[in-house]
Design a protein that fits this description.
4 strands, four-stranded antiparallel β-sheet, about 160 residues, single chain
């Protein structure tokens, strides 16, 4: 594949990167978003594995920051100041894009999921916009993921 030299239009485009294996993609896909439309990492919402992957970042500092962030959330306090890391990896704005994933495992072993990506808006009447919604399932006998359409036909 040739480089298009612009932002990704979908996360599936990560699969086209030279050297990207299905195993690597499965490990990192949940830590990325294309919906914030900005380069860089927002440490206020970034998963631990993303912060640890930043070159030169101390894992102990990441663990401490994640703990501070968790405590602030539990106590309904403001999020702690931004995590200290190389500025070239930081997102340039505080635009908030959130990924919400719900997993449910049925007694049969079938695992269902709902995955939503939402962004904050300036409109108080509609503070969030859903930009992505995915449904799927993993059936124990199949050991792989199926889409909502495949799930509907399997029922």
């Amino acid at each position: 594949y040739r480089s298009k030299d612009r932002s990704f239009d979908s996360l599936d485009e990560l699969k086209q990167i030279f050297g990207m294996t299905p195993e690597i993609y499965d490990q990192i896909e949940s830590a990325f978003t294309i919906y914030s439309k900005q380069p860089g990492i927002n440490p206020i919402v970034a998963p631990k594995k993303v912060l640890i992957a930043v070159p030169g970042v101390d894992a102990n500092l990441v663990n401490d920051y994640i703990e501070l962030r968790k405590e602030a959330y539990q106590q309904r306090n403001p999020i702690p100041p931004e995590f200290q890391m190389n500025g070239s990896y930081l997102a340039s704005t505080s635009d908030m894009t959130y990924r919400i994933r719900i997993n449910l495992t049925l007694p049969s072993g079938t695992a269902l999921y709902r995955d939503a990506v939402v962004t904050r808006t300036e409109n108080p009447a509609q503070p969030f916009t859903i930009v992505s919604w995915k449904n799927g399932a993993v059936f124990p006998e199949k050991e792989n993921e199926v889409t909502e359409d495949e799930f509907e036909t399997k029922k």
